[in-house]
């Protein structure tokens, strides 16, 4: 378990208090309609809460000082994401403050950084990564094509689902400039404003009430200054995306475990507290052990980003795979151990299970990252 310095501990405590008071699970429940999916008119997040996050500086935690950020590091942002995960707080913090800011920091030139980073840091601009094109994570099979046109490029194709796509102002679009499916050397990343002519967005309903989008790009023209980088940059962004999502999933699993443990300590059946039954004690002990392993993996990956550790790709996949398995087991046990009430929409258990299922699929599933970790370690 990582040892936090005083500033990191203060940030973690502040995020925990704010999420508990300002974005409790009831805030997420308000985004659902009675049928169980997201309300059609909902944006999948709370704009007022997002403004408060920006005022607290969370949107600029990773951004450099010269562009309005605090350069506090990915460990700090991971602590915030974990606390937001504990209450299932819906926000584009991962897409914008971690992925989009990292894209500009790692691959942007001075002009691109000056154009976009101040807005991303103060929260007035929301960014996202448009990489997926189907139900399975396969960036090397990108089909959206970018063709040279004069001094710039023309983009044609479809991206879906794009996380936070309905509220994003800036998309980091992964496109193919050469080669076919599976040829990663032909991939490039482009900075595309979401109000660019030819780019249309349609909302997708999701079981966790958030609102990703389908992007359709038809002859979207961008200048030469929109080109950001290639496959190596994409790998770095996806590593950070996986780790950031793993941090949120750790918060989900942690809160699901705490809630379930409290229930075992108070629920009475057959004249006894059900937590007094040895079988349930053993089950809780197993879950606790899995949770500590997941925490170690996530925190090691966050530290690896800040230290520019060459083992980062392996640690990213290790964290996403381990926490994916953990949150899957704990959220399912949360429903089962609560009994019948855990199956109802009115109880929080189902909401944790739904968000856990969606998060596990984002930026590579548990199986995808398990296979990648094995490949990177030459198994």
| C-alpha Rg (nearest Å) | 21 Å
Spatial arrangement of strands, main beta sheet: 1-4-5-8
- Major sheet description: 4 strands, mixed
- Counting DSSP E segments of at least 2 residues, the number of strands comes to 10
Structural class: alpha+beta
Mean pLDDT, to the nearest integer, reads 95
What is the count of helical runs?
A: 11
Overall shape: it is: globular
Q: How far apart are the first and last residues' alpha carbons, in Å?
A: 27 Å
Strand content: 15-25%
What is the N-to-C succession of helices and strands? Answer: HHHHHHEEEEEEEEHEEHHHH
Proportion of residues in helical segments = 40-55%
Low-confidence parts: none
Describe the 3D structure.
- The chain is of the alpha+beta class and 379 residues long.
- 50% of the residues lie in helices and 15% in strands.
- The protein is built from eleven helices and ten strands.
- Strands 1-4-5-8 form a four-stranded mixed beta sheet.
- Helix 1 runs parallel beside helix 4.
- The longest helix is centred in the middle third of the chain and has 36 residues, at 231-266.
- The chain is globular.
- The two termini are 27 Å apart.
- The mean pLDDT is 95.
